[in-house]
Amino acid sequence: MHNFRPIFFILAALLYAGTVHAQGSGVDPVQYIIAPETPGPNAPVQITVQGVGSFLGDATITWSVGGKTVASGTGLAAFSFTTGELGTQSIVRLTISSATQGLITRTFTFTPSVINLVWEADTSVPPLFAGKALYSAGSPLRVVAFPTVIVAGKKVAAESLSYQWSVNEQPVPALSGTGKHILTYTGDQLQSAEVVSVEVYFGSLKVGRAEIAVPASETQVLLYHKDALRGVVWDNSMPASIALGGKELTLQAQPYFFANTALKGGAVSWTWTLNDEVVTGPDSAKGLLTLRQTGEGKGSASLTVELQNQNSSQLVQSAKTILSIIFGSAQSGFSSFFGL
Question: Which among 50, 110, 53, 103 is positioned nearest to 83, based on CA atoms?
Fold first, then answer.
């Protein structure tokens, strides 16, 4: 086993959003397709017009941005442009001049916004762990939306927006609504990742959408040495094999990425074996075991610790690690150990 001191960085999905207003009157014979529907700042946008029959192919279509004509010609049914900075307004005007349909005009207003999604998993890590607690299948998960929405030149408070959450493409209306920018739920142990999306509204106006995929990480258990004076030495985990320097060895097993609710509720079982024989101690169910050598034998022993989450919705959370212990000056012979 090599030393295990990973630093995990927060994984966050950053999807941009924008507001779109369309103005027109009467029955419009044209359909408008905007991709993406809610673009972000400095983002490419394509607007496509579609009409019944073939009149668009013969019509003169003019596109203008900010009052300036940028494209004009026969059959120009698609137009692309780039939005401005965050909160700046881009006004696109479309004019269709058709011999059969007359004059059709449409104005689109884009005000780019930003929706950030950040996730947190309620899973186990060592004290003072420098990394991120990773999500494991079936564990509690928290996703927070951080919106930056500009309307009429002012930033809209997160509590004033409405959030419509979906988990793995299934809407969760009970967890959605005005001001509900935090989604807390328990993941599915059968999913290799949790896909969370949110649509953000200001009143009835959709101002953004964001999506994030949270991968399910494997649960682990690592062993650490507990020193009589310094306590548990969290700097480095135990290697795969060690030479016993004294008559006694105290080990702390640390589960990584198990659901904290299961650990605190006693749903995780601990099994220690030494040379395939079960050993226990006063705190072995808490991950702490002391081994002492009896006699003057020389040889080696294999210590195994296994963890299993017994919750029916978290059975996939299990882990095992093995430590080879060499004692004495030779690797022959045998001496027993027992847990205290």
Answer: 110
Q: Which residues of the chain have pLDDT under 70?
A: 1-28, 295-297, 328-340
| CATH architecture for segment(s) 116-215 | Sandwich (2.60)
74 close to 53: Cβ distance less than 8 angstroms: no
pLDDT for the residue numbered 295: 65
Put simply, whether the predicted model's pTM sits higher than 0.90 gets the answer no
Kindly state the helix (H) or strand (E) to which residue 131 belongs, with its residue range.
Answer: none
Say how far apart CA 316 and CA 141 lie, in whole Å: 16
SS3 content of the chain, % helix, strand, coil (to 5): 5, 55, 40
d(CA 19, CA 35): 13
Chain segment 226-262, per-residue pLDDT in tens: 998 889 999 999 999 998 877 788 999 999 999 999 9
Cβ 135 vs Cβ 194: under 8 Å: yes
Q: Is 56 helix (H, G, I), strand (E, B) or coil?
A: helix
CATH code for the part of the protein at 220-339? 2.60.40
Which residues lie closer than 8 Å to 172 by C-beta, 6 or more apart? 165, 166, 183, 185
**What's residue 15's pLDDT?**
33
